Amino acid sequence: QVLLAESGGGLVQAGGSLRLSCVASGRTLDSYTMGWFRQLPGTAREFVATIIWSTGYTSYGDSVKGRFTISRDDLKNTAYLQMNSLKPEDTAVYYCAARRGFTSRKSDDFSSWGQGTQVTVSS
């Protein structure tokens, strides 16, 4: 139903910033919740942030609240994740995800996924 493509990952020193982008194609996102998850070795995908497309309402994981900001550009059909004050603990593969309907913090509830983009934060 929807195809997702992330970009913007890279390496950065602790305290620096990165902005990730997720371009959605195939349909309008009016009825969708978009999210960002990250995955570290030896663990399941961790909730980072979500945004309800129609209203712009956002939610954040405790570990990133106050440092990360999720937003969307309806004209470009693109979701963004602005990451500030990055820490080495933020190092992970970051995935964009989408689900139809109400928001969720569980990765299993999201039906569409991007390919992932690597974020590496050095000490």
Keywords:
mainly beta; 123 residues; four-stranded antiparallel beta sheet; 11 strands
Decide which structural class fits the backbone: mainly beta
Shape verdict: globular
Unreliable runs: none
H/E element string? Answer: EEEEEEEEEEE
| Helicity, as a percent range | under 10%
Rg, alpha carbons: 13 Å
* Total beta strand runs: 11
Average pLDDT, to the nearest integer? 95
Q: What is the strand content?
A: over 45%
Quote the distance from N terminus to C terminus. Answer: 40 Å
Number of helices: 0
Main beta-sheet strand count, sense and barrel state: 7 strands, mixed
Q: Would you give an account of this structure?
A:
The chain is mostly beta strands and 123 residues long. It is 0% helix and 52% strand. It is built from no helices and eleven strands. It has strands at 3-7, 10-13, 18-25, 32-39, 46-52, 58-60, 68-73, 78-83, 92-100, 112-113, 117-122. The strands form two sheets. Strands 2, 4, 5, 6, 9, 10 and 11 form a seven-stranded mixed sheet that branches. It has a four-stranded antiparallel sheet with strand order 1-3-8-7, with no helix packed on it. A hairpin with a 5-residue loop joins strand 5 and strand 6 (58-60). It is globular and about 40 Å long. The model has no long low-confidence stretch (mean pLDDT 95).
